[in-house]
Design goal:
This is SET domain-containing protein. The chain is α+β, with helices and mostly antiparallel strands. It has 26 helices and 23 strands. The strands form 6 sheets. Strands 1, 2, 3, 4, 5, 6, 7, 8, 9 and 10 form a 10-stranded mixed β-sheet that branches.
Amino acid sequence: MALELVGCKGTKNGHGRRLLEDFHRVLHGANSETSNAQDLRTKHRNLLAKLRSRASDKEKLVQSCPTATSKLTPASDALLSSLTEIVHAKLLSNIRAKGRFIILRTLEPVAALVGLETVAEDRAGDVCTLALYNYRSSKTETTPDEALPVGTVIILKEPVLKIDPERGNALRCDSPSDVVFVGRDSPFYGMVEHTVWHHEVNGSLPSLSSFRGSSAEEWKTEGNNLFKRGLFNEAREAYAVALQLLPADESKEQGSELRITIHLNLAQTYFRLGFFEETVLHTDIVLKQDPHNHKALFRGGRAHYELRRYQLALDHFDRLNTSSPGQPETMKELKKCRERTSEQTTGVNIYKLYLAAKLKPQIPIDAADFMSPMIKVVQRRGVVATEAIQPGTKILVCKALQADFTGPTFEDGSSNELVTELIQSVWKNPNTIGKSVYELTTNNAELDSHKQYCDEGLNGEPIADVVRIRKIVNANAFRLDRAPGHEPSEDGSALFVSASYFNHSCIPNAIYNDVVVFHVFKPVACGEEVTVAYEGESAEPFTARKKNYQARGFLCNCQLCQLDQAEPEGERKARDALIAAERELLDPYRKNGVMIAIPPAGILKSHRGVIQKLERSYSTLADRKSSLKSALFMPYVCQALTSGNRVKFVDYAEKAFESMGVSLKHLLECSDTGDVNIFGEGSLYSIHMDGVLAAAAMAGLDNSGGDRFLAALELLKRVTDGSNKQMVKAQFFDNKEN
């Protein structure tokens, strides 16, 4: 059994972490002059046993392993047929073996850290460490043992022997498209079939290694047995061999039926492994011969659905329902497909999304992408309005290609797991998902020009370029404040294709929520660019914003950044220091910007002193062409929520809104008339505005005897995220203790 290494930070005295470090020192020391193959393997086996004994089932897979963020090697863009073999002894440290490949066989059970790590031998008998990254994610059905069994023969394209002074050395591969598994069905099997390997393996060999079937029927039956055991990779190999053994001449009906069965089995196996394009390939072959084949229609329809080709999926299930009406599974799939195709035209109903997240929080929300005809993408580098758009208009719905909430690994807030999932999707489905991902920019012209296929042909060898995909995530990933149906968190990140075409502005005119539904919240003229704030950081200090955007590979030149840039550096630094002082005072009493406790009177008095200094930091800017003083927004909000009386609350609330360029008085008037023009051209929105209005409504601060604050909150939420009254009530008033 392979080790799925779990976090050791909870173990006493850091003993688990030391074991992990010892494991790497041994595992990566295979080529030192003082070690030999047997010693390495013995120590490796003993350390794995110790790590297993320390592991806790409740702890999670380590995502912060140092090798996860080591310098990555770009994917090879060479055809395997154009390369020649090299052995381990001929490799040069940290230099890619261009034009070469190496053949390896795994000797030890794999350890699943961030990547898959084991010990392998080459055909000359040299033992080395092998580390495969991004080949398997923690979310997959395939276990580490199944992903890289003992005795597996692989080819690494243009390998790199990575040397690390602290961690030793290893043959490291970052892109799964550089790994070729040589099974019985492989065109390269003849190259290794008669290889005399030099070392014994430690563990059970894959089931197929000892199988000696001679007919297509026998291999198909073995594939069925492996599939039932959940060994999908081996089942796929068995079915592929069975297909190869079928005679070219199929004049007999029996041979034709067997071929159809094998294609159907391959389709089901590929589906379970996430290769949806391959699933469609095999179901299409069956449907050409048998247009009404129920299994082919059903499996092909499900694969098209996973590839978000909803109309094709609907066509498959319609045909299936015509030939066999009313089947429960078919009707369920038909209902989903009809919903998605409708959403592609009108956009998903926001209230429906809300109910789905509330009633079934553990089930991923399903929605089709939608782009309003009121906007268009310009050269895949921005979005402009094709007509005038009124505030509150839904302009985009976008479902993430991949989303992850395991926590940030990188500076841009995205995670190693998000990158791995995307690489897997691109590698497995290059003509659909891969094409969508590679159309996004890296903000680097050289990287954007990298090939998607080794031979640039649609049916060529696809490239899962880890360096390019990592940069695409860096430039385009959205941070998510919370997962639908889960507790608030700042650890989410996701990649959305259509949403990524929107450019950033710290003063945006459109806004998105966690389901990535974009609403225009200011009037947008025909031809005007539609922008969003990538991370909702407009109220952050200029220095922090600039650093974050540089990490993403761009500089913001919006009105707010121009104003901040025009300020003397000394004044900016002084204001940054005041912002830091304000947060130090009140952060112990708030969580995610929300007050969770009332600070002592002395703290509040000191806080008011900081506010006065922040106010004065803006007073010298008489020629400033904006009323924005966003650094004061959260301090004013905190004073409003802790004021204790109506007059002070309203006073600070008005100041808070004004600091963002919004008039609270105007908003209340809009709630009376239904006018959606709440925000001016240079104004900003913050979700904490919602909290201020909700607090005022709950406290009954409207002295006119009405519910103007509640009406203002409902209008604000309708304009910014499409919420209706039921959603506002549930979010702010059904759980007052929160």
